[in-house]
Amino acid sequence: MSRQTRQSAILSIIASQEIETQDELVTELRRKGYEITQATISRDIKELGLIKTLTSDNKYKYVTKQFVDAGLSGKLLSVVRETVISVVTAENLVVVKTVGDSAGVVAGAIEQLSIGEVLGILADKNTILIVCETSRDAMTVKEKVNRLL
Q1: 3-state class of 93 per DSSP?
Q2: Tens digit of each residue's pLDDT (9 = 90 or more) over 30-58
């Protein structure tokens, strides 16, 4: 079995089931005929960029980062859409302006996206400062934030 085939099976499993632990993932892969070790699963999870997210029944499950990009909770996505006034870049920085005291909530939502280009996020009451390594990274982050709006 190739690494690519195994990783494809992992993506299929997490897309169709709520897998909370590596042990559960090993069990499902073995049911599908894959002989797998915990160390291999751990490497695959890292290579695939899988993360855990909280489900509606307060359990965690593995998802892809793309799923999180598209899957902010409805309420949180609504808050982001209703409160963000502007998103601009300045060199390697992204500045997000929000209404009222909502910057903390919006910053939390942006952090949940686990955007690789983000080095750090600071927020006060109505302004979020996102630090990136390069101006190109800042433009990418700006585009990703704008896609939420």
Answers
A1: strand
A2: 999 999 998 999 999 988 888 887 776 77
Query: What three-state secondary structure class fits 55?
Result: coil
Q: Give 67-104 pLDDT, tens digit per residue.
A: 555 555 666 777 888 899 999 999 999 999 999 888 98
Query: What is the three-class DSSP state of 37?
Result: coil
d(CA 145, CA 19): 28
Distance CA 62, CA 52 (A): 4
Specify the pTM: 0.54
- DSSP assigned state of 133: S
84 and 117, same structural domain? yes
45 and 103 share one domain: no
For residue 49, the enclosing domain spans 3-70
The closest alpha carbon to 62, from 72, 51, 54, belongs to: 51
Lookup result for tokens 């979020």? 128
Name the CA dihedral angle for 113, 22, 37, 8, rounded to a multiple of 10 degrees: -50
Tokens representing 16? Answer: 């169709």
Q: At residue 134, what are phi and psi to the nearest 5 degrees?
A: -130, 165
